[in-house]
């Protein structure tokens, strides 16, 4: 697959090969492959997160190349020490990310999907008079 992009150095449109492939939807969008729809959903999520991590890593490699061209080395990046204020902001961003992406994995479920979802009043046994 190729795409058109603008070269930032000379503002010309160029064609380049990409590593993306077009999305191909499933023939049966509600199919269950791993025996449990929740497991299927988790697997889909893990694959999607893997793709996101790789695309972020690839982008980071490009940014590091640009930084190296400007004289900022990997050693300089590794030696960076953030101020206490920046550490607090990074920690807050990390905590928000964990809450957004991981808390559902700790959710307790105590109602099987086959449960009757109608709410029925609980009647106490009353002694017969």
Summarize the structure.
The chain has 129 residues and is mainly alpha-helical.
List keywords for this structure.
129 residues, 2 strands, flat, two-stranded antiparallel ribbon, 3 helices, mainly alpha, single chain
Please describe what this structure looks like.
With 129 residues, the chain is mostly helical. Helices cover 45% and strands 8% of the residues. It is built from three helices and two strands. A two-stranded antiparallel ribbon has the order 1-2. A hairpin with a 6-residue loop joins strand 1 and strand 2. The longest helix is centred in the middle third of the chain and has 33 residues, at 37-69. The chain starts with a strand and ends in a 27-residue tail after the last helix. The mean pLDDT is 77.
Strands, helices and their partners?
Blueprint: E1 2-6, E2 13-17, H1 37-69, H2 74-79, H3 84-102
Antiparallel strand pairs: 1-2
Quote the average pLDDT: 77
Give me the strand/helix succession: EEHHH
Computed Rg: 26 Å
Helix/strand/pairing class, anyone? mainly alpha
